[in-house]
Model the fold of this input.
Amino acid sequence: MARLASRLALGVALASLAAASTVVSNAGAPGATDWPSTNYDQSANRYSPLTQITAKNVSTLQQVWSVHLKPADFIGRMREDEAIPIVIGNTMYLASPYGAVIALDATTGAEKWRFQLPNNELPSKRGLAYWPGGGGLPLPPSIIFGSTTGRLYSLKASDGTLNEWFGENGVITLKTPEVMQTGTNAAYSLLSSPTIYKNLIITGAGTGEGPGGSNGGAGPAGDTRAWDARTGKLVWTFHTVPRPGEFGYDTWGGDSAKNRSGVNVWGYTSLDAERGILYMPLGAPNNDRVGIDRPGNNLFSSSVVAVDANTGKYLWHFQLVHHDIWDYDTQSAPLLVDLRRDGQMVPAVIIVNKTGLMFTLNRVTGKPIFDIEERPVPKSDVPGEQASPTQPFPVKPEPLTQNTISRNNLYKGEPQHQSYCEHLVDDNNMKLGGPFMPIALNQYSISPPGPAGGINFWGPAYDPELHLFISNTSNIFQPMRLIQRPDGSYINSGPLAGTRRFGDPDRHLLCGPTPWGELVAVNMDTGNIAYRKTLGVSDALPAGLQNTGRPSSGGVVLTASGLTFVGGTDDFRFRAFATATGEKLWEIRLPSSVETTPITYQGADGRQFVTVVSTGGGLTGSQVTNDEIIAFALPKK
Done:
């Protein structure tokens, strides 16, 4: 399960590092007023203690600076950016979709340094990490990130130069024979920021989706691995698809686990640093729409797995989707919170995914805090497909998103679009259904929320004072259809399948019932929905019909002053709400939609900043019309 890498060379390597002393940067340890990691802290709460911006003054926010990420000499189209910057001291570090990692003055936006990746390589599209340095040696604070070609970089935080003591001159390859399985030429990347624990860099995997071969899901392994931040040496590996003799191997029929790809952390992990427990949200197996060649529940696909962060040793797991054939995944960082139950504080983990269901477990034991039921779900009509007869459902809370659709509850509003939606269903003989309805054979089918709906990789947030879980949600359904190929295998295919959303692509209007997007709060004392607020407007509709909500591709940030900031929706707006009530307090239209999560921090001038990347793109298919990171603050007094 977990394999401790050989450490024979470690002592020699560390000794040489000590001799080759490096000047340590004054960046120091992150503070509470920084934004030190992708989700603020490793519990993924995205709750900042800052209070300068309040419900009373948020309406006076003004733009302080903006930086264009696209170089002046860049030739080609603008690129989407889903990365979340981090801020340490007065320095902001961010990954650019134009092949660079950049350090900015967090107060003014002035560039401090820039590291350009070689050979048209791109940094991880969803962020980077900060290691404070040291580790018993005079090593500097460092910026750690992966790339689209499967490499892991370590830069000095002070000047952006490569750390020569890490790997080979600051770089290691993640494409080792151990994980590449069927060949090193296959695509492999690091899609999101790694997790830092002590002197470990913990990485997920980008293995690609869909079939790895004509009849199955062979390809790179989705294993989670830990590397020594001081040397780049491999420390441990967790096999996300169990090997023979490991726990969970018997959930794969026959030898279907062999060389299986997918089952990877492509989003973000969470960490209980005090207990040393890492929580890994894992994706679906490849092929992620067809499971004929992989009978069984297929652990640890579409699960959260808790492991010892020091060794990678398995502790417990919870599978959100058995035998995933919908690409539902489990991809957002599990939310680590403490809840009061029966007069005692209980360490909890809150897990969500694209199903729109929310599960709350004891994060030490994996036992449910709010009850979970296995409920019957429909069978598959695809020959040989053994869909799971049941799936887990939480008793509380109710589904956070829509999970049924019928001919009677399509969009209703503007007559033109209503007619379009009715014809889309009728003319294509679409099969509409409820939760976990398998993809139909030779017929378009929709089972909400679908692989683009629910809550995706950006994840939720938690206010510990109000005891509120907060998340934006998407009701963005996706037609799917399985057809048989000449070689006998099956594939999701057709003009309306793939990534085509259920709606009118020309007007960018969806066909499911409104709202198409919401801001949802759950009272974690009771497990009940505290409020639902329609989030987003459809400018293509006439006045009076625009309050439809819009799908999202970025998350929320909370502050101790009771504010919720969110971009995410594909309507070009950036908004602030009262966390306690969901009342909208502020809104601004940006040059493009926000397809990532904002951050907040305190600048060198003492002001609280709220910063957001605005490019468009993302899962919503919003047009990429901009390349800016934009910072807001209250006016100077």
Remarks:
- The mean pLDDT is 94.
- The chain is about 5% helix and 30% strand.
